Structures are given as C-alpha cells and as structure tokens.
Amino acid sequence: MYRYILKRLLMLIPVIIGITLVIYFTMDLAPGDPVYQIVSERASEEEIAAAREEYHLNDPFLVRCGRYLLNLCKGDLGVSYQSKRPVAEIYFSKLPATLALAVASIVIALLISIPLGIYAATHQNSWGDSTSMILSLVGVSMPNFWLGLLLVLAFALHLGWLPSGGMNGFASVILPALTEGAYLAGFMTRTTRSAMLDTIRSDYVFMALAKGVSKKESIMKHAFKNALIPIVTAGGVQFAYVMGGCVVTETVFAWPGIGRQLVEGINQRDIPVVLGFIILTAIVVCIINLMLDIIYAFVDPRIKAQYSK
C-alpha cells in the first residue's frame, strides 16, 4: 500500500510539468500584451520597458517556462499582476470557501441520491422508479444558473429566509449547495440505481434470502455494500469536479471560491494566477483520486490484496 501511494505521488511530477507547459503555452498565445496588466494605460515607454525587464517578459518562451518550473520546485508560484500578492496566498484564501461548498453539495447529493437510487432499484419498473429517474434527469439537465436564480427569487427575495449571495455564516451556503447538489444528486441517483440493480440480482443475495435473512437486511448488508465501488467512484469524481471550482454557481451567488477567481484571472490575463490555480487544483484532484483508491481498499478487500503485491 505504501509503495502504491508513493508511486502515485511521484506520478504527480510529470502531470504538473505537462499542465504547466500546456497552460503556459496557451496563455502565451492569447491576444494582448500582459505588460498592460502590470502597468497603467498612461505608463511611459520607460515604465513599460522596466516592467518587461522586471517580469522577464522579453525572454523567450522556453526560458520563461523553465524559470517558472524551477521556481515551482521551490514552492514559488509567482505574484499576481493585479493584486501583487503571492499566488499561493490567494489560492489558499479561496480554498476554504470552495471546500465548504464542495462538502455541502456532496452531503446533499448523498442524502438524496442513495435512498432514491436504492428505492428505484428495489422497485424497478414501478411508478416510483420512473418518478425517481425523471427527477434525476431533471437534476442533471437543469442549468445551474437557472436553478440558482430561481432559488434566489424564491428563498431570498420573496420569502427572505436565506441570503442571496456572499459567504457569511452557515445560511449563506445553503442555496449554492442546493444548486450544485441538484446536479450531483441526479447523476449519483442513476449511478446508485445501476449499481444496485447489478448486485440485487447476484447469487449471494438470493442465498441470503433463502437462509431467512430479511429483504431489508439483504439489500443493505449484502447488495448495497457490494455496490459501493461505483457509488464511491461517482462521489469522488463529483467532489473533485466541485473542488475545481463551480464557476457558474460561484458567480450567481457571488461565492468567493477558486473557480470565480480563476475566471477573473483569465479575463485579466493574470498569468501567474491562472497557472498557479490550475496547478494547485490539479494537485488537489490527484490527491482526491489517491484517497479514492485508498477508500476502495477498505470497501473491497480484493483491491487491498492487489495493492499488497
């Protein structure tokens, strides 16, 4: 297990290098001159030249990219052109907001999707199954910006129960978490139903029923436990997606998260912010995937046996 974890962590190195090269090259192709994001429009030619020299903008692409990779090895992600703050400091100041939204969204999705998916699987082809699948399809298909605006109109403007935006206490996370959780719940309901349909038809479930085990116990103890692998996978993938920044949801609710800040950095052509945020997000996603693989070992002993080889 330890060798596997070390191997996965070492695989982060080529991933980070590849991401850095692709994003650096893409930002370099973008129209416009980044020096005008550093100095004002009224700056003189001498000030522009000094800024180019200070930020090494006159150097060739490979030289600039190589220098960035060397600084990255030292933990230096650069300084924002706009705020003049270290990129790592900006990222970790936005991380708690995104983490709170991600956890709340996943909790809501799990509370909805697991009971609904199990019910749909155990009542296949019934009206309850059809209703749950329609609801999950609506959740997956509904645009986040539309649902978010509806929730704001209903619960913030008309009823006045919840704040319409910003991050200020527990109440402020409810509406954005519901908005993001609706999509996650729709996706995970279908995954749970599919996984449960595969397991409840297995021989060991019929054997448990033949031995006198109640239907409820056979479903929860035998079928659901063996259906956890795809459910955990779906939940982990969706959690990694939310941790990457829910741009639409964060914009609608003025949520001070990673995704919103990243879009602002792209619009302002703040190259250090864009590079740093994407690299750190890639690291977070890789760590989440590693944690998923470790969770698999506890859910399925066969996988743990493979890790020990």
The major sheet is characterized as: none
Report the radius of gyration as a whole number of Å: 24 Å
Q: Secondary-structure element sequence?
A: HHHHHHHHHHHHHHH
Record field, number of beta strands = 0
Low-confidence stretches: none
| 3D shape | flat
**How much β-strand is present in the residues?**
under 5%
Structural class: mainly alpha
Helix fraction? over 70%
Mean pLDDT figure: 80
Oligomer: single chain
* Termini gap: 9 Å
Helix run count: 15
Structure description:
This protein is mainly α. Helices cover 76% and strands 0% of the residues. It has 15 helices and no strands. Helix 2 (12-29) packs antiparallel against helix 14, helix 9 (203-210) runs antiparallel to helix 10 (215-226) and helix 13 (258-267) runs antiparallel to helix 14 (271-299). The chain is flat.
Helix and strand topology:
Elements: H1 2-10, H2 12-29, H3 45-54, H4 61-73, H5 87-122, H6 127-141, H7 144-158, H8 171-200, H9 203-210, H10 215-226, H11 228-243, H12 247-252, H13 258-267, H14 271-299, H15 301-307
Helix pairs in contact: 2-14, 5-6, 5-8, 5-11, 5-14, 6-8, 7-8, 8-10, 8-11, 9-10, 11-14, 13-14, 14-15
Keywords:
mainly alpha
Summarize this, please?
The chain is an all-alpha fold and 309 residues long.
